[in-house]
Amino acid sequence: MKTENDFDMALEVTDFFVVQTPFGERLTRDGAFTLNANNELVDMQGNRVMGKNGPIKINGGRLVVDDGEPFPRE
Predict the structure, then answer these.
(1) 51 with 20: CB under 8 angstroms?
(2) Distance of CA 54 to CAs 13, 41, 45, 51, Å?
(3) Are 63 and 32 in contact (CB under 8 A)?
(4) How far is Cα 11 from Cα 31, in angstroms, rounded to an integer?
(5) pTM for this entry
(6) So where are the chain's domains?
(7) Which of 43, 61, 69, 74 is deepest in the core (most CB within 10 A)?
(8) 30-47 pLDDT tens trace
């Protein structure tokens, strides 16, 4: 389903996003994301979305998901 948020994502049935919460890393299927003040991808509660090498930071361009990890593309 298309949304008006460029950072919203959907997953396959068996996949999850990893977010860093105050209680440690948690899995979620909720793909509603935005950017925080540090240009990090976060969920609607402000928890950072984690990639293979830590929090996912968006430094411009558009967001593309490749091989299971989002990253910015010019």
Answers:
(1) no
(2) 24, 11, 18, 5
(3) no
(4) 8
(5) 0.72
(6) 1-59
(7) 43
(8) 888 888 999 899 999 999
